[in-house]
Amino acid sequence: MKIKHKDLVLLLSEDNKTYLLRVEEGKDFHSNRGIIKLDDTVGLEYGDSVSSSLDNKFILLEPTIEDRMMKVKRQTQIIYPKDASMILLKASIGAGSRVIETGLGSGALSIALANAVAPTGKLYTYERREDFIENARKNIEEAGLGDCVEYNLSDAKDGFKEEGVDAVMLDLPSPWDGIKSAYKALRGGGRLISLSPTVNQIEEAVDHLENEGFVFIETFETIQRHYLVRRGKTRPIDRIIGHTGFLTIARKANK
Amino acid sequence: MKIKHKDLVLLLSEDNKTYLLRVEEGKDFHSNRGIIKLDDTVGLEYGDSVSSSLDNKFILLEPTIEDRMMKVKRQTQIIYPKDASMILLKASIGAGSRVIETGLGSGALSIALANAVAPTGKLYTYERREDFIENARKNIEEAGLGDCVEYNLSDAKDGFKEEGVDAVMLDLPSPWDGIKSAYKALRGGGRLISLSPTVNQIEEAVDHLENEGFVFIETFETIQRHYLVRRGKTRPIDRIIGHTGFLTIARKANK
Amino acid sequence: MKIKHKDLVLLLSEDNKTYLLRVEEGKDFHSNRGIIKLDDTVGLEYGDSVSSSLDNKFILLEPTIEDRMMKVKRQTQIIYPKDASMILLKASIGAGSRVIETGLGSGALSIALANAVAPTGKLYTYERREDFIENARKNIEEAGLGDCVEYNLSDAKDGFKEEGVDAVMLDLPSPWDGIKSAYKALRGGGRLISLSPTVNQIEEAVDHLENEGFVFIETFETIQRHYLVRRGKTRPIDRIIGHTGFLTIARKANK
Amino acid sequence: MKIKHKDLVLLLSEDNKTYLLRVEEGKDFHSNRGIIKLDDTVGLEYGDSVSSSLDNKFILLEPTIEDRMMKVKRQTQIIYPKDASMILLKASIGAGSRVIETGLGSGALSIALANAVAPTGKLYTYERREDFIENARKNIEEAGLGDCVEYNLSDAKDGFKEEGVDAVMLDLPSPWDGIKSAYKALRGGGRLISLSPTVNQIEEAVDHLENEGFVFIETFETIQRHYLVRRGKTRPIDRIIGHTGFLTIARKANK
User: Fold this and answer.
1) Do D206 and C234 meet the contact criterion of CB atoms below 8 Å apart?
2) Which of the residues in chain C have pLDDT under 70?
3) Which of A199, A225, A229 to probe the D interface (max D CBs under 10 A)?
4) Which of B196, B198, B230 should one mutate to test binding to chain C, selecting the residue with the greatest count of C CBs within 10 A?
5) Between residues 178 and 237 of chain A, which touch chain B (CB distance below 8 Å)?
6) pLDDT-derived band at D239, boundaries 50, 70, 90
7) Residue D229: which of C62, C119, C203 has the nearest Cβ?
8) Å between A104 CA and nearest CA of chain C
9) pTM, whole model, 2 decimals?
């Protein structure tokens, strides 16, 4: 599978920095480690290397979903891979799933969701800020996942157009604003997921979920701890992301 | 989408316990909360309820991937959803991916992997203990994911038959035994993942990965902390799984 | 410093179990690893060993403060060493300090506090349940720290008799019940510490502290993770105490 | 207890910043919130306030041991209060204890140790770098704890002069260099504590401890997580210190 024009590649420098870019005809990539003519990468394979004008080596890697999430242009705090991966598994989102997401933020989670439901499923996004939709749409399309995503400029409170969806993801300051709408849109047994930074939000959300007819409600946070692994000097890394948010998962029981 | 014979359902009792079972014609489900005739669930939908002989309500839920992983018959320690979900995202495993997994254990991770690559991808498993393959195969088929899984009674050290795969997952006491074989089987840019409980294993594995030509090597652990969420009494849960294992992820650079 | 009658010793068995006991004349210590005549330990030194009737070795250790805390007879959940040690340091409690503690619980924290203020300081305890006082007093005296502790059968809400104390420790279901009383009892710059299991309690307590004139308010939890350290097989221990409580520390500003 | 010349005070500004300083006659304190004539604080009490030249309020607090540790002039990484407090409790260090510490670093831990053993105990420090001793000594004296500390310009490997001490604290790149010396210096049942950042150090140290005759060996790390507590918006703080070091504690058994 050779690299061709318009492909996304992740350049890895010798000092372990990564750059996500698209192989545009006639374009150069500039960094403090030298220039790479992107046309020179065409015909190579992922895993191959190129040399920059300063004779530094860059390895051409295939961008993973995580790479594409982390490299979005950010207008908002993004949802991190550690949380996105739990959302996918807990809500059992896979090829063919029909999923609603609101708010849209910068589209980082959308990339993970769209990738998971592709090619036969659909991601329906709802966001009330037009500038967020614009930026997120660019990010999602840049990640090559635009095909199965729909955008609605609308508030969760005003309801969703879809019915019988498999999962609804709420990333809202007041998640309870979307709970009634989510209940209506979900099929029986469908999953609702809510991500919130504060304890008060989860307390309020869980209360609403119980009243609305959701069951098997679970709340947790996920902490990731990286290690510096070097022969004879292995230890946890000093800095850690202390908190992103709490995830609440629930399933719809029919009334 | 009505429940029919042979479907998998997750029964949720009023005390929040779950039971995963297949709707076999003429069979009953027995618990201390009474008996349910499984035939009575046919024609209902996920989200609906049934009453047991003791008049206790059970809600019929659609089993998620996590439910199916956690309910496997265990002959070994299983890989937990918190780790499985990170494996899927970090290794960018999705519909159509071709993935090798060794050892097979009880097949819990295989369920998550097979579900992710389905319907067009393939999971190639390698395991040297026949009894493990037998048990895992039953678990995977019971979870409804047998179609895209192949089984090899063989040791990672002896190499893999496949070439150009997208990802190789190593769950071995000596992960370095599988690293050379993985390098050969992977396509350029493909991902290797290794899960190990001890620090010494990751130190040794990372050393081998660096020597073998893997790049962008990363090691971390994932900790999940559940919360008891009740109006005015919200707090982290007392008990926590303190440790499962460290995940190491690397990508193949071509030589 | 030879062991003599009435001394406290910690017996350590070969399977790493510990037993805290007092060397009573003519008494025996019984365990499934055999009997030890306590008189035989008299004249030995800490660090020496004795053999049981079944020829198992026990090492005689000097009980640390932690040993004495963990071995109290429990009528309540106790405050753990990981939290007690932070209380002592954050509240700057040392020889000569005058400290109020309420409620008393089983007296585990009192042992740490009394040990820290001894010999010239004083620990004033307030507890509204007589049976708790009785049990805690026995535990504290058994730990050899009775001299500098006073007991009051009284509720925090009704105020404390002392003035100008260095620190007040609140371990109450409604910590705000003790905040006004604590403010009155503390000298300027004195420290208030409150331990609570729920997030709601700390939110309410911090609110009251701010209104009452406390400053430099800080809330945190302390998590301890033990490791199984064995050459070539080192890893975090599977089980961990997931949560005990949140500590809030504040200092009194004068009005 | 009125503030007088030469006293240490902790100034707390309205934006919750703290400044540790000594009330020197005729001196001013300068900050971007204005100037305070230190003579104006004389005669006030801890908990009282002063106004700066820019009319900003500063509260005069009594420096805790933690304040004094955190404000040392650093030539090295310091040992944090969360670890220092566990060292004190686990090693049962209190008034009258005789303790050896090596290396000395910037003296932050020494401040906690000296404070704990004062007034009747003694802290014997060993450090092979003269510049570290100089800086640490200044820090310890500035904290008002110089009286019970002795300094030795010497390496742990070369042994300690003292005998029968209660505890030995090792903060060395190769803690095993100090283990034989520590065994000789400790009395039976005495505690050895070692702090190390890497897993390999603890593995090696525990091996040496077992061979040397230490028992009841325990290794753990302590993680502290702060919370932002505000009515309706309470959550863990984003940033956290991911790792300082692992603590190993052991007790001397006699041979």
Assistant:
1) no
2) none
3) A199
4) B198
5) 187-191, 199, 202-203, 206-207, 215-227, 229-232, 234
6) confident
7) C203
8) 29
9) 0.96
Residues C205/C246, Cβ–Cβ less than 8 Å:
no
CB-based contact A198 D235, cutoff 8 Å? yes
Task: Kindly state the average pLDDT of the residues B230-239.
Answer: 95
Q: CATH topology for A66-252? A: Rossmann fold (3.40.50)
Check C235 against B243: CB less than 8 A apart: yes
Paired with B247 in beta bridges are: B195, B220
D48/C188 CB distance under 8 A: yes
Separation in Å, CA of B159 to nearest CA in chain A: 21
D235 pLDDT band, cuts 50/70/90, is: very high
Q: What is the CATH code for D8-61?
A: 3.10.330.20
pLDDT in tens, D68-114: 999 999 999 999 999 999 999 999 999 999 999 999 999 999 999 99
What are the domain boundaries of chain C?
Answer: 8-61, 66-252
Do residues C133 and C102 make contact, with C-beta atoms less than 8 angstroms apart?
no
- Say how far apart CA B127 and CA B135 lie, in whole Å: 12
Give residues with Cβ within 8 angstroms of A134, minimum separation 6.
none
Interface size, chain B vs chain D, as Cβ–Cβ contacts under 8 Å: 3
Q: Count of A–B CB contacts within 8 Å?
A: 197
- Is D240 part of the contact surface with chain C (CB cutoff 8 Å)? no
What ipTM was estimated for this complex? 0.96
pLDDT band at D1 (very low <50, low <70, confident <90, very high): confident
3 state SS for C56-114: CEEEEECCCHHHHHHCCCCCCCCCCHHHHHHHHHHCCCCCCCEEEEECCCCCHHHHHHH
Q: What is the predicted pLDDT for the residue at B1?
A: 78
Find out whether the peptide bond into A119 is cis, omega within 30 degrees of 0: yes
